[in-house]
Amino acid sequence: MMDVTRDTLMAYLDGQLDGDARAAVDAWLADNPDAAIELAQLQRQNEAINALFGPVATEPVPPRLNAHRLALTQSRRRWQSVARTAMIVGVLGIGIATGWLLRPASDTPALYNRLIADAVSAHTVYVAENRHAVEVAGTETDHLASWLSNRLGTGLAMPDLATAGLSFLGGRLLPAPAIPGGRAAQLMYEDSAGERVTLYITPRSGIDGPNLELVRLGGDNALYWAGATITCTIVGPQSAETLQALADSVFAQLTPSSPPGAGYRPI
Fold first, then answer.
1. Mutual orientation of helices 67-92 and 94-101 as an angle, nearest 10°?
2. Pairing relation of β-strands 136-137 and 167-175?
3. Which residues of 54-64 are buried (b: 16+ CB within 10 A; e: fewer)?
4. 3-state DSSP call for residue 187?
5. Which CATH architecture has domain 111-254?
């Protein structure tokens, strides 16, 4: 019997095994359903990456990315930075210069775009987990709601999506350093086929941008919406139409005090 290791599975996923080796892995996966599910999730992740960046990989390298040119540019900027820093240190003193050198970059994506990216990243990481997919199980709904509401500084309900065929697995607290408060909540749901959906929730304070944004990422879709007090990004392999239907229910349950449709508009 072939010894199937993590490296073997990665080679299988990348199409690097011959016929006999692939057949042996297929037989092993049939006896190890958890590993088969994880491998399928990794396959979806690869498809999403290829869908996003595959076309770019076939394009010729632009002249501005020539290795020699980049090296010269980097060297020039390094010396310019040294000269500028020396001048600042001499005029303003070491303390002020240090503060200038550590200033945040101004050319950064809009916050709502960063939230969508963080939501997709967290979804990809945690839906692949079996035993540790969530930090607090869905059986502790009251505790989870109280804990996450306290950490996010806003009242947060745990949406019940049973009518949509989704069972609540639980949730976790995540760091979100880009936003005020620095915290986000992730809630995870699963259907009868094992497909998972996550909600990535943050306070709305300090976040500008559209009330609604849909992003298609190969095998997954992400639907972002912002209400008066929170933002929520729903991520899953379901169609955009299915996520929209879920959003109607999720929004009503997460913000029960808001009037119908407030801060959320169907696509």
1. 150
2. antiparallel
3. eeeeeeeeeee
4. strand
5. 2-Layer Sandwich (3.30)
Among 227, 45, 21, smallest CA distance to 122 is for: 45
**CA 67 to each of CA 8, 63, 71, 181: distance values in angstroms, whole numbers, following the listed order:** 34, 9, 6, 41
Tell me the domain boundaries of the chain.
Answer: 6-57, 64-101, 111-254
Residue whose structure tokens are 């590993």: 35
Spatial CA neighbour of 112 closest among 217, 197, 232, 228: 232
* Res 178: pLDDT: 79
Could you tell me which residue, 13 or 163, shows the higher pLDDT?
Answer: 163
**Full-model pTM:** 0.58
- Report whether 127 contacts 41 (CB < 8 A): yes
> Could you tell me where the DSSP H helices lie in the chain?
6-13, 19-31, 33-57, 67-92, 94-101, 111-127, 141-152, 240-254
For residue 68, give the amino acid letter: H
Tell me the two tokens of residue 25. Answer: 């892995």
Q: What letter would DSSP give residue 164? A: G
Tell me what the mean pLDDT of segment 1-17 comes to: 77
Say how far apart CA 67 and CA 73 lie, in whole Å.
10
- Decide if pLDDT at 115 tops 90: no
Identify the CA nearest to 203 among candidates 253, 144, 156, 251.
156
Note whether 179 and 158 are within 8 A (CB). Answer: no
pLDDT (tens digit per residue) in 238-252? 888 888 888 888 888
**196-231: per-residue pLDDT in tens?**
999 999 988 777 777 788 888 767 889 988 888 888
Which residue's entry shows tokens 């990456």?
A: 49
**Single-letter amino acid code for the residue at 84:** R
Q: Which two tokens stand for residue 70?
A: 């980049």
